[in-house]
Amino acid sequence: MIIKRPIRPDRLRQVPPSFSWVDHRLVSARYIEQCDPPSLALYLFLVTVADVQGLSFYSDASIGRRLRLDSVQLSAARQLLERAGLIAFQKPLYQVLGLDSQPALTAETAHPRTNQTHSVAEILRRVRDGGAS
What we know:
The chain is mainly α. It is built from five helices and three strands, in the order H-H-E-H-H-E-E-H. It has a three-stranded antiparallel sheet with strand order 1-3-2.
């Protein structure tokens, strides 16, 4: 049996008072498989800045600057998240949606997995560098 012990017990993660967290069903219900690096960066940003109801009013210009996405990339990322059922958008309001147990499958997720794993740091680095592999 593997005994798990925190490497840094002085830095144990806690839900902050500002209410910002990521639902594990993003992975377990396979929502993440419907997303590309720019849409994942946008989702992480929206989850981080949203209030307890999942709402935020950041402008496209501000989000684009922070994520280093141009207006076309941001629009595509937003549309992908909407299709995946992860967000709702009605300018200027974003809403991070609660996750259902199973997302609607798109053509992209109907294909077999590539068995590749990527860290969040790698995904964000790829977004910063323009999505290059």
